Each structure stands twice: as structure tokens, then as C-alpha cells.
């Protein structure tokens, strides 16, 4: 109902585009079928070790931009040995490698940091490319159980 009202405002020219967060495929299907509106963006948990390939395919099929929240897995991706090895090969930081991987996959990333030097470092993710072999190594890291946040399919659960 809320999305339908927001879509109405979009139709009136009051807002340019509509996005959602943490919507999974079934909810997106319902949303699209009931309102006729496809969200412009879906902000979801996504990082090199938790990629949600089925959701990404759904986004691609429907033209939904994927925006990753916690693209560094709250720092956990930085400790992955394969990401560390690629970073050493390229003389880049682990964060830059992880962010670059997602960027090359066409995913919008907005990493969080309160430290100026880290913000500057993160911007360096746009200044290089990973090879196909490096991308394949990181592709192999996907862990469907690798969430760092709550699963939107079950959260907040019966206790809420």
C-alpha cells in the first residue's frame, strides 16, 4: 500500500524514481504485479562473499539497479585470504579489491567509513580493473550463509 502511494506520487511528477531496500524476489514480484511499477533500485546486503545471485538475476531481468549495503561485509571480506592475495598482487588494499569486484559486476556500492583516509582509499577502487581470473577467484567465494545482517525473509520474526 505504501509503495502504491509512492508510485502515485511518481505518476504525478512529485518524485523522480522509487526504490526499495531488502526486498527479495517474491516481494518484488508481488510489488510489480500489484502496482505495475518496477523499483529503480533495491538496496540489499551484498558483498564478495555473499552475492545473492538469484536476486541479482531478478534485478537484471527487470532493470532494477542493485545497491550493496555493507559491501565489505562489515570488514569480514577484508580478511578473506583470496582477497588478500589479489590485493597483494595488485598492490591495492583489500577494501579496494572487494569494492572493485562489485563495481565490475555492475553493483552500486556505498561503503561506510568515518575515517577520511579510508574514504579516500575506497575511491581508489575506480582506478584499476580486476582480471577475468581474479574475478573468477572472487566469484568462487560466494557463501549463501554469509549474511552479516538479518535475513529479510524471516526478520523481524514472531517476536517483533
Q: How would you characterize this protein structure?
A:
It is a single chain. It contains seven helices and four strands, in the order αβαβαβααβαα. By secondary structure, it is α/β, with parallel strands linked by helices. It has one domain (2-139): NADP-dependent oxidoreductase domain (TIM Barrel), CATH 3.20.20. It has a four-stranded parallel beta sheet. Helix 4 packs across helix 5. The protein is elongated, with a radius of gyration of 17 Å. The model has no long low-confidence stretch (mean pLDDT 90).
Short description:
The chain is an alpha/beta fold and 160 residues long. It is 42% helix and 9% strand.
Give the helix/strand layout.
Layout: H1 2-11, E1 19-21, H2 25-35, E2 41-45, H3 53-62, E3 65-69, H4 81-90, H5 94-104, E4 108-109, H6 116-123, H7 132-139
Parallel strand pairs: 1-2, 2-3, 3-4
Q: Report the structural category.
A: alpha/beta
Assembly state of the chains shown? single chain
Determine and state the CATH class.
Alpha Beta
- Determine the number of helices (DSSP H or I, runs of at least 4 residues): 7
Amino acid at each position: 500500500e505504501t509503495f502504491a502511494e509512492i508510485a502515485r506520487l511518481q505518476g504525478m511528477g512529485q518524485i523522480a524514481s522509487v526504490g526499495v531496500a531488502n526486498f527479495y524476489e517474491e516481494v518484488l514480484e508481488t510489488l510489480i504485479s500489484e502496482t505495475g511499477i518496477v523499483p529503480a533500485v533495491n538496496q540489499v546486503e551484498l558483498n564478495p562473499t555473499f552475492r545473492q545471485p538469484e536476486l541479482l538475476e531478478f534485478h537484471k531481468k527487470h532493470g532494477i539497479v542493485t545497491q550493496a549495503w555493507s559491501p565489505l561485509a562489515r570488514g569480514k571480506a577484508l580478511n578473506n585470504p583470496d582477497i588478500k592475495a589479489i590485493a597483494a598482487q595488485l598492490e591495492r588494499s583489500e577494501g579496494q579489491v572487494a569494492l572493485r569486484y562489485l563495481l565490475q559486476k555492475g553493483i552500486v556500492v556505498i561503503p561506510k567509513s568515518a575515517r577520511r583516509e579510508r574514504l579516500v582509499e575506497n575511491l581508489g577502487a575506480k582506478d584499476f580493473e580486476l582480471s577475468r581470473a581474479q574475478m573468477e577467484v572472487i566469484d568462487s567465494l560466494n557463501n549463501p550463509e554469509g549474511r552479516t545482517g538479518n535475513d529479510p525473509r524471516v526478520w523481524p520474526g514472531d517476536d517483533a
